[in-house]
Design goal:
With 510 residues, this protein is α+β, with helices and mostly antiparallel strands. 42% of the residues lie in helices and 16% in strands.
Length: 510
């Protein structure tokens, strides 16, 4: 797991695309960005030794770790215009073992052995959704010994550990199970543990101190437990509750940002940020892109979007909710959701609530299913004196009408689509609080002579618009036919053609 960071070092995470099944240019882009950020913080006049934790310490293949380290080394040289003074890594393999446990590190000895002023340690760890890598630079010399000098940001590398690295994710689950067993065992001892050294011992002390009302000491023990890198949610939430009691809401945000966020796994960091006020809209795109799969984070996000329903009642957010709810439901029903909680009853309650809320909403009818997963746009066909025509175009979404709205259609299924910008001045919901958009062509078309664009178009392909949250929407269009039960009003096979072309998006009108 993640290396223990006990007083002197704040670990910060970054992810680099692995050399397995990933294009070389993608690897280069990520590594270069990370190196550029580090170079801005690292002292160029100091000798820097770069080292990665070993396969035994990380559970990751040696080739993967060597390639990762080499890529970063090359990128650092390039980003610094070859001014950075990097020690020869091949002579450093045995130097850093002692530095993993910072409390026991003799920095003078490390300096003598390494002949370096700065230690740059990479700490990759396998997690359930991929690989996360922590890089920490700290001083080995001078008055600032042990002080963090540079760090990178946190990004997850979502890869299939089994397929790409040969790492069995079940081993990670077993480690968490072992921690839970140790927590139960330690809890039977009763009192405080004088020299805590493991997750279970830190957590045990934190709980006892919290019960005694010793807030500051409880917080310190929670911090140490969380720094061990296990993905247990409730210790983080308990820590934030204590921080809020001690520092207030504004102070807790600063405390989390400066002391906690960069020293815990990214999943927990994202959860803490969301609980403390990160705008839920920021997570919509990462959820849609499958970049966020941590079920406890998703359950918190879903609940927050329900609280401000009016703002988040859009197709795009609905699609993200669907992805999130399916992941939560699968994890909850398999029991995996509860593994992220020390208190299993607490975890089960959270998972069940998120699952049931979404399920009840989806069972309310086809319209809600459409609005949440498929489309909020609909076209109604009518028949007139000159034939059938598109009579009504509506989008029951929060449409930003300051941007163009485009409908794509064709005369038959064999024709190329034609995309037309709709006249926004004809919107019957203009300036309405719902944000809906609707144009009715019926009155002008029923008696028309059939030479308007909306006549004779059997196929509706898509609609494009921007919603009020800033998301670009390009969705299919639901299709209905007025008087569908009077086919004689539609010449030839036009009714059947309209329905066939709509396919799964055809919705029978009342």
């Amino acid at each position: 797991m993640i290396m223990k960071i006990k007083n002197l070092c704040i670990a910060l995470a970054f992810a680099m695309l692995a050399p397995f099944h990933v294009a070389a240019d993608e690897i280069t882009d990520v590594v270069n960005n990370v190196a550029a950020k580090l170079v801005q913080q690292l002292p160029m006049d100091k000798k820097i030794a770069l080292k990665s934790l070993s396969p035994d310490e990380t559970g990751l293949p040696e080739d993967f770790l060597r390639k990762l380290t080499s890529d970063l080394e090359a990128a650092l040289l390039t980003a610094s215009d070859f001014e950075i003074n990097l020690a020869n890594r091949t002579t450093m393999e045995d130097v850093w073992q002692e530095a993993v446990e910072f409390n026991n590190a003799d920095f003078d000895e490390l300096y003598k052995s390494a002949n370096a002023d700065v230690m740059l340690m990479m700490s990759p760890r396998a997690i359930s959704t991929g690989v996360e890598i922590a890089v920490t630079a700290y001083a080995l010399t001078g008055d600032d010994v042990g002080k963090v000098l540079a760090s990178s940001g946190s990004v997850l590398l979502p890869i299939d550990l089994q397929a790409n690295l040969g790492v069995d994710i079940n081993d990670l689950n077993e480690q968490m199970a072992q921690v839970l067993a140790e927590i139960e065992k330690v809890g039977q001892t009763g009192g405080l543990i004088s020299s805590p050294n493991t997750y279970a011992e830190f957590y045990h002390n934190a709980r006892l101190l919290q019960q005694r009302g010793e807030v500051d000491l409880a917080m310190r023990n929670y911090e140490q437990a969380l720094a061990e890198g296990f993905l247990f949610v409730d210790p983080l939430l308990d820590l934030l509750d204590l921080a809020n009691a001690r520092y207030g809401e504004a102070g807790t945000k600063k405390y989390f940002e400066k002391k906690i966020k960069d020293n815990i796994p990214r999943e927990l960091a994202d959860l803490g940020s969301l609980v403390l006020g990160t705008d839920p809209i920021e997570l919509v795109r990462p959820i849609l892109d499958n970049e966020i799969t941590f079920a406890p984070l998703l359950s918190t996000w879903i609940e927050q979007t329900y609280i401000d329903w009016n703002r988040f009642d859009t197709l795009t957010v609905g699609q993200a909710r669907t992805i999130a709810a399916q992941l939560i439901s699968a994890d909850y029903k398999s029991g995996n959701f509860q593994t992220f909680y020390v208190d299993k009853i607490r975890g089960a309650t959270v998972g069940e609530r998120a699952t049931q809320t979404y399920d009840s909403m989806m069972q309310s009818g086809q319209m809600m299913v459409d609005w949440t997963t498929t489309s909020r746009a609909k076209v109604l066909y009518y028949s007139g004196r000159a034939g059938f025509f598109i009579g009504d175009v509506s989008i029951q979404d929060k449409v930003d009408s300051s941007f163009e709205i485009e409908l794509c259609y064709s005369t038959t299924s064999n024709d190329e689509p034609i995309c037309r910008k709709l006249d926004r001045d004809l919107n019957t919901f203009k300036n309405h609080e719902t944000g809906w958009f609707s144009i009715n062509y019926g009155t002008m078309s029923v008696l028309g002579n059939g030479d308007s664009w909306n006549f004779g178009q059997e196929c509706i392909h898509s609609v494009r618009y921007r919603d009020r949250n800033g998301f670009e929407v390009n969705s299919p269009v639901l299709v209905g036919v007025v008087d569908y039960d009077e086919p004689e009003k539609y010449p030839g096979n036009s009714l059947d053609n309209i329905i066939d072309c709509a396919g799964p998006y055809y919705r029978q009108t009342n």
